Amino acid sequence: MKYGALLGWGIVIYAIAELVSSALITYGLAATLLAQCITLVSLVVVSLIAGHALTMHSWKDILPYSLGWMCILVALDALLYVPLAGWGLYADSGMWFGYALVAIAPLFASTAHTLPEPHRVF
């Protein structure tokens, strides 16, 4: 296992999610359905990029990383948000849905490596 990729991408996924959330709060969109969709799409996109960056050919190889990234997000939320919001933070099903997306989305990145190379016409 590449521990640099595990820790680095876990922090990047968390940082991007927090950046998007902060921007939505800044513009008064935090409690809207649009904000939830934007946040979830950003989680999926960054998680797919992270899974693709591992350059592994099987979802089975990516799974330990994606589960590790999910655990990193849970731990960072515990470290940064539980002191402010309390443990009730984890009672929100939306949080767990986001964690699940981070665990599942990178597994689809392995399919990009199994596609045939495009043929050049010229």
Poorly predicted parts: none
The chain-level structural class is mainly alpha
Element-by-element helix/strand order:
HHHHHH
Average pLDDT confidence is 90
Quantity of strands, as a count: 0
Number of domains: 1
The dominant shape is globular
Strand content: under 5%
**Helix percentage:** over 70%
Q: Please work out how many helical segments DSSP would assign.
A: 6
Please describe the topology of this protein:
Elements: H1 3-26, H2 33-53, H3 59-80, H4 82-85, H5 93-104, H6 110-114
Q: Can I get a quick summary?
A:
The protein is mainly α.
Describe the structure.
The chain is mostly helical. It has one domain. It has six helices and no strands. The chain has helices spanning 3-26, 33-53, 59-80, 82-85, 93-104, 110-114. The longest helix has 24 residues, at 3-26. It is globular. The chain starts with a helix and ends in an 8-residue tail after the last helix.
Question: Which properties best describe this structure?
Answer:
mainly alpha; 0% strand; 72% helix; globular; 6 helices; 122 residues
